[in-house]
Amino acid sequence: MLRAGLKWMFLIIGTTIGAGYASGRELWQFFGHESGLAILLFTVFFSVCCYVIMHVSYQQQSSDYLPVLRDIVGDRLTKVYDVMIFLYLSTTTVVMIAGSGATGQAFDFSFWWGVLVITVGLIALFLKDISGLLAMNQIVLPLLLGGLLFILLLFTKDQGLNVLSNLSEQRNWTAAFPFTALNILPLIAVLGAIGNKVKTKREIYIAAFGSGLTLGVISFIYNNSLIQIADELLLYEIPLFAILKHYPFEILIFMSVLLWFAIFTTAASGILGIVSRLQNVWNAPIWLLAAVIIVAMVPLTTLGFSTLINYIYPVYGILNLYVLTRLLLYPLWHKTGHKRV
Predict the structure, then answer these.
(1) Considering the domain 2-330 in this protein, what is its CATH number?
(2) Which keywords are on file for this protein (predicted)?
(3) pLDDT tens, 169-198?
(4) Which of 44, 60, 248, 320 has minimal Cβ neighbours within 10 Å of its Cβ?
(5) CA–CA separation, 292 vs 275, rounded Å?
(6) How far apart are CA 189 and CA 100, in angstroms?
């Protein structure tokens, strides 16, 4: 029971804690000063959203996100969100593959070697269906979370920081809404694919509230650490490196490898969401679908996505806030019988 719940918990965290989060860039963009209450609200919102998504997918015994999406946003908006989820997963996965190429360049390898490594790794991962992804998450994510937490706590201790300082100033509490909403669509895609594999409701409780609490605690400590070096962050593309500069080069290498795995887990979750949806159209083995999709994405890593993202991401922001509202109010409107809008 506990083991199954932890398995889904790591799937949720693996979907959420991509390179943007692990590097500190997302946290600093949304939170920063006066954000303790915002992070607390995020913890609650995130846990509730994960619980509702998993509860719906468990009830539906779903193998892809479409029936879950329909129950959450209603019939009329399902087609819109179906397209948006597919685009979101595709663009973020391509960016992750390109990110692996850029990581390779950082270590003086060719861009294409970095792309090749993540491409081969992703295809190999799905040779064992979804079980390969779940097994990897249970090994990689404890290392990633443990390594990140260790560095942050060490930094907090070495700098003599008080993580509970300035709790009376919380003007940035509204940041909880867009930050939570940012992660909603990929969670629907991934958790919608495992509804028929969840056996009990206890697994849902462990996964939903365990992931929310874990991310909440790490986010609070991480954000507090970044506040202490706020003046230096303008000099760093990756805020985590501003913390790591205080420690030996070996730790920088170790955390860089963990950042690559954060890229890998995010890409793997994106592929899972895409292939589970496509299996409704093309009844092929999951590894074959994954291979076709990944190979098709490789040429796209050379394109500039800034224009596409500039247009699509603001739309995501608005649509995601609507989904967030539906998820948080799900117990209320669901009881009234208004399942469709």
Answers:
(1) 1.10.4160.10
(2) Membrane, Transmembrane, Transmembrane helix
(3) 678 899 899 899 988 888 999 999 899 999
(4) 248
(5) 10
(6) 23
Per the CB < 8 A criterion, the answer to whether 305 and 88 are in contact is no
Query: For the whole model, what pTM was predicted?
Result: 0.87
pLDDT at 158: 81
Q: What is the 3-state secondary structure (H, E, C) of 84-144?
A: HHHHHHHHHHHHHHHHHHHHHHHCCCCHHHHHHHHHHHHHHHHHHCHHHHHHHHHHHHHHH
Question: What's the gap between Cα 183 and its chain centre?
Answer: 6
The answer for residues whose C-beta is within 8 angstroms of residue 317's C-beta and 6 or more apart is 178, 181, 182
For residue 167, give both structure tokens. 């709790």
For residues 23-33, b (16+ Cβ closer than 10 Å) or e, as one string? bbbbbbebbbe
- Three-state DSSP class for residue 231: helix
Q: What is the 3-state secondary structure (H, E, C) of 4-73?
A: HHHHHHHHHHHHHCCHHHHCCHHHHHHCCCCCHHHHHHHHHHHHHHHHHHHHHHHHHCCCCCHHHHHHHH
Structure tokens at 75: 């019939």
Closest CA to 12 of 265, 331, 328: 265
Residues in the chain: 341
Domain ranges of the chain: 2-330
Per-residue pLDDT for 101 more than 90? no
State the SS3 of 232-287.
HHHHCCCHHHHHHCCCCHHHHHHHHHHHHHHHHHHHHHHHHHHHHHHCCCCCCCHH
Whether residue 297 contacts residue 46, with contact meaning beta carbons closer than 8 Å, is answered with no
Rounded to whole angstroms, the Cα distance separating 6 from 207 reads 6
Letter for the amino acid at 242?
A
Please state, in angstroms and as integers, the Cα–Cα distance from residue 217 to each residue in 41, 44, 224, 302, following that order: 12, 12, 11, 37
Segment holding 311, helix H or strand E: helix 306-328
Distance CA 269, CA 117 (A): 17
| Type of residue numbered 68 | V
Please state, in angstroms and rounded to a whole number, the distance separating the CA atoms of residues 38 and 219. Answer: 10
